[in-house]
Amino acid sequence: MKRLFVLLLISLSIGNAFAQHSDEATRIKQLNRYQDSLVRLGKKMVDANLDLERKNANYSFIKTLVSALKINNSFLYKFDSLKTISILNSPDNKFRIFTWYVLNEDGSYRFYGAIQMNTGGPLVLHPLEDYSPLMKSPEDSTGNNRKWFGAEYYKIIPVYGAKTYYTLLGWKGNTVESTKKVIEVLSFKDNKPEFGMAIFDGNGKVRKRVVFEYTRQASMLLRYVHDQNLIVFDHLAPPDKKLKDKFSTYGPDLTYDGYRLKNGRWVYVENLDMKNVPDERDKDYIEPEKKQPVRTPANIKRTGK
Length: 305
Hints:
Elements: H1 2-47, H2 51-69, E1 86-89, E2 95-103, E3 109-117, E4 125-129, E5 143-144, E6 152-159, E7 165-173, E8 178-189, E9 192-195, E10 200-201, E11 210-215, E12 222-225, E13 230-237, E14 251-262, E15 265-269, H3 288-291, H4 297-303
Parallel strand pairs: 10-15
Antiparallel strand pairs: 1-2, 2-3, 3-4, 5-9, 6-7, 7-8, 8-9, 8-11, 12-13, 13-14, 14-15
Helix pairs in contact: 1-2
Region (Disordered): 279-305
Organism: Mucilaginibacter boryungensis
Protein name: WG repeat protein
């Protein structure tokens, strides 16, 4: 009887393991199919010539992504083949953030995104709604996922303390003349995301986020130096003092400033000695307009691209 009981337990264990393996295989197969659809839609979202085609592809992309994330344990699926959007996991693995853009016909951008929480169970997803056009003073504003200063993020820097927050570095295409980058702050209150926090000190004021604007013809360094707790960036300046109010003319002037983390706050420092800070472009991120030809209303009509 004991032998029969042991054999029964072994048989049940093998059966459960086989069922779990079968369920896992089915889950991965489903997610792979969704990823294939997302890859196809993502390419159309970026490459389609017509404004309406790009936007329709984006709407289908959003629906498909949500369906994929509803699958059990989707947080563990990396979407490795999906290259047209940014997917970042927080270093503490509490959430991941999806961000991407759609180019408008006039050469401006609209940003989209979502934050998926690592619940280990049912999907908790916070959609991000680009509120940029209505933000009159972004550096003085806070918001939530419904009032988001849209951007495509490429770095998450956690700052742990009494109130843990996450500093985000992002690219924010602007117009046919200028580009923007942003240092954003993400935190959570009652398990809901909040953006912006008055923790950037110096350079004349306290900011809730930091926004840079510069000519679309230039590239700007904005990166985090981990071993120095330092966010370093190009100092931007106009080619002529008479153009100081026209940010679309600004570009790097070969000097560098930054924000250094001190007591949980980012403190402005200027004229950094780049001998102690690696002088390299953002190695993990290439600005979208540097990857592909820039579409404008004129060249869309002229070349169809």
